[in-house]
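Q: Can someone sanity-check these two? First one:
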Amino acid sequence: MTTTTLATANFDHLLVREAENGIFVVTLNRPERLNALHDALWDELDSLCAVLERDPSVRVVVLTGAGRGFCAGADLDTITALPGGTVTDFMRIQEKGANVIARVKRLPVPVIAAVNGPAAGGGLALALAADVRIGAPEARFNVAFVRLGLSGCDVGVSWLLPRVVGLGHASELMLTGRLIDAAEAYRIGLVNRVMAADDLVPAALRLGREMAANSPFALKLTKEGLQLNVDANSIEAAIALENRNQVLASRTQDAPIAMAAFVAKTTPAFTGR
């Protein structure tokens, strides 16, 4: 894949469509395997991130799964082959998946996970790497690794999950590998809301529209600030970053456009500069 824009990207295992101006829906497309992750899909997710990092036309991404699953985690064929592989083979697979999850988390645009079905193992990590999660009633979540004789700490879950649901809930889920439904996921804060399956992606698009109504640079700095300040050493460190970002944003062409539109109660036409 040599394209540099998401609108013209071609993938074998990802479906990409621009739902509306700047808001893209990316669908994991291996429904016969519940969108399980294998080498090729990890590679395509990595390529997707490379495009998103440099395509200024993308404002928000909605990530979902084809068929009845969001993502069942590592493909069973990959898992069963691990005991026979070498340490270096296993490390290569580990590093590939973990690096992709980290790259999704670092994307400069908001990512909304529309979890339409099971999200297990690496699929849970992918949902956690999003900024916001919305679940259908059919959504199910679990940390699958510990049930497979492996550590529950895998592809970033031990960092991501406690920051979303808190250490207590994360410890329970990671030490038991227990499957939870959408209602419990909502109760512990794993998903922001539960929507009927037919309204899941439309609800994510409505939320994306609210995000995309803000200037691109303001969105980028807000996401950056949230991700850095959740682990800030002190409130002083957090405030220092906030101050820097506010001053930077105030110097953009879009700042006075946003302020004028706010006062006039009109829709701003941002330049992205």
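And here is the second, same format, sequence then tokens:
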Amino acid sequence: MHIAIAGNIGSGKTTLTTMLAKHYGWIPRFEPVDINPYLEDYYKDIARWSFCLEVYFLKQRFRDLLEIRKSDRTVVQDRSIYEGVYVFTANNRDMGNLSDRDYETYMELFEIMTDVAQLPDLMIYLRASVPHLVKNIQKRGRAYEQTMQLEYLKNLNQRYEDFIFNKYKGKVLVVEADDNDFQHDPDKFARIIERVDSALELGTLPFTDNE
């Protein structure tokens, strides 16, 4: 089984991935951000390095997807190939960092990959406001993230909303991340566990915190 954790930068994906893996005995798979050889160059010259960065991420995520499908154990993944494409790459294109030619080539490659891929059994979307994201980004202190513009995070949030509710065709559970300190509040984490159990059993979509 494949569980994916979706959400903007600083929403708590890695924390939730770690906690779910420990609770259920699932295998965690984290996004290898720090080893991307284009990342440092990308933040210095986004327009020059966007295509290289996005193709590298796509290659890594597709490899992860193939390995997850071969596994005989349940894997919980920190960010999926789908949001990488429909949120981050699409945002780079609209910001003028990817040419139409590069974007079309990228999307053709993605479509070929998804012809042989399967959607996750469940996607958990950590929905967070921009102030919540900023607080978490500042708290973890990654140097290359500290210069992110608020407008960039806002644009990503809007794309996440469109991706989750309009584009993604799989099963989704929506978890409101603001004022939800599941890392330190056992009751709030237990609520997430209850909803994950229900989502995997019932298959209704999307689940929200109001249900």
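A (reply): Looked at the second one. DSSP finds eight helices and five strands in the chain. The chain has a mean pLDDT of 88.
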